[in-house]
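If your schedule permits, I should be very grateful for your opinion on a structural question. I have a record of one protein: its chain in single-letter code and its fold written as discrete structure tokens. Would you kindly read the sequence against the tokens and tell me how you understand this chain to fold? Thank you for your consideration; the sequence and its tokens are set out here.


***
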Amino acid sequence: MFQNASSAKSAMNGFLTNQNLAQSVFYEPLYSQVNLAGFADRAALSPTAGLLTQQEVVFFSAGVGQPGQGWYQDYATTYAQARPLTQAQTNLKDSGKIPAGQEFIADSLGVDVFTTCPQNITDWLTSETSIYQERLSTTWDCGATRYWPCAEYGTQSKSAATTAAGPASITYPTNGGVVARRLPADGGLFFPAKQQIIFKMRFHKSHYITLDGTVATEENIITPDAVVAIVMTGWRFNVVSA
């Protein structure tokens, strides 16, 4: 937000400078969603039906129009057809890397647990999972998922109140407007063109991806709404082509 005419004019001068350098600059999110249902055991009538075992899932591994990251046409069958991601699931154009002619500098990072997740899955995600980022030969261990909350997107209430006896109940992430963690200027995330952009979530405990957190049945189905995203906001620099 521009505080006065001087700061607005300064921003215009910066825009013109970038234009002369044949660059355009946009402030926007960079996001990638995983549907946990796609990683759960879909073998019907099995004691492990709906179980998501201890493993890792990868964010930003698929770009727009590419299949992956747990997105399927039907989660009720063992041999469901994977479907390509749309702009609603990610805005990364290439799989696993920033496209040629672009750079991205992130000044915030958050884990967005969708409000469509049943509460048992939300609780498990915020207590039994962690995230880390891989860049070439280096790894940034971000730590427990609960320390990177992001509830500023989607539908949520701003506060919670109850008249019931006992302590008040605060539900993460639907209560409050928690914003993504801001990163310092010298500690931002820098993604040059054609370089790797990979985040992983590690599940430290197995969990059923079902409505009540127990084995999947006809009544207690694998929920197709167990979606979690890694989201960053920052600046995308584009080389302007003639």
